[in-house]
Amino acid sequence: MPQIPSPPIIALLSDMGYSDWYVGTMKGVALAVCPNAHLVDICHDVTKLSIQEASFMLHVSHGYFPAGTIFLCVVDPEVGSIRQPLIARNERFYFIGPNNGTLTLVQAHSQEWEARVIENPAYMLGARSQTFHGRDIFAPAAGHLAFGADFQSFGRVIEDTVRIPHIEKVEIKDRKLSGRIVYIDSYGNLLTNVTPDMLPDEMDPHEVRLLFRGHRLKGIAPHYAAVPLNHPLMYWGSSGILEVAINYGSAERKWNVQVGEWFELEW
């Protein structure tokens, strides 16, 4: 069981933005239960209702936190329905959020996994709405866990958690790879589902060619400044995956790209 640090850390991820009171209220509820908790915002600008985007963001960010961190993840398009509220753990961290697939990627990359339904009313607000479980169920659960509540006391074990189609395996055949764009960041950089282990060790990175919508890029660059201004490049990004960008520009805007589009690599 992961050891919660002192002071405990609660990291928040949501699609609620900062224009309303929702995020601040969730923080207030968690702090009312555990006043010494340290709250960290991962992001609150997940595309509205995008479970897959939230799953990706959680996956690429959570491993950099101290062991025992509690991740409070609320992207919840089915709030108020029969979908279950979850608390889960792997070998290093705790996760709280709706059973809708948000935890798909962290679960897929965990060596240990245990999920439970949050059903103990002692860990919820007394009056609960049908439209704001982030405030009424998930935030108090995070606060109680941070304050020392036993993980097993939240509710029964659940085996069949919802799994969304996550970063699909790439197709590799005859020195060619087909992959997808899985995320576009705020700079307009295109993040793919290709990792270094998918490419042969003997491959010359200078000879890799990317084909996308009639565009061709050759060679994996070490960084943005390796190409002239406004030129495209591909490189290994900070999340450990292949990215495509425009130096001092936006690949998303230049090529009108959407998440889910296919591309090909050749070598």
Describe this structure in words.
The chain has 5 helices and 15 strands. The N and C termini lie far apart (45 Å). With 267 residues, it is an alpha+beta fold. Helix 1 (22-33) runs parallel beside helix 4 (133-147). It has 2 domains: 9-154, S-adenosyl-l-methionine hydroxide adenosyltransferase, N-terminal (Rossmann fold); 171-266, Elongation Factor Tu (Ef-tu), domain 3 (Beta Barrel).
Key features of this structure:
single chain, 267 residues, alpha+beta, Rossmann fold, 9-stranded mixed β-sheet, 6-stranded mixed β-sheet, 15 strands
End-to-end Cα distance: 45 Å
Radius of gyration: 20 Å
Q: What do the pLDDT scores average to? A: 94
The coarse overall form would be: elongated
Per the CATH scheme, the topology name of the largest domain is Rossmann fold
- Per DSSP, the total helix count is 5
Q: Give the % helix.
A: 10-25%
Give the CATH class of the largest domain. Alpha Beta
What is the annotated CATH architecture of the largest domain?
Answer: 3-Layer(aba) Sandwich
Overall number of strands:
15
- Share of residues in strands: 25-35%
The major β-sheet equals: 9 strands, mixed
- Give the topology string: H per helix, E per strand: EHEHEEEHEHEEEEEEEEHE
Give the CATH H-level superfamily of the largest domain: S-adenosyl-l-methionine hydroxide adenosyltransferase, N-terminal
Which assembly state applies to the chains in this document? single chain
Q: Unreliable runs, pLDDT <50, ≥5 residues? A: none
**Sheet/helix structural class:** alpha+beta
User: How many independent structural domains?
Assistant: 2
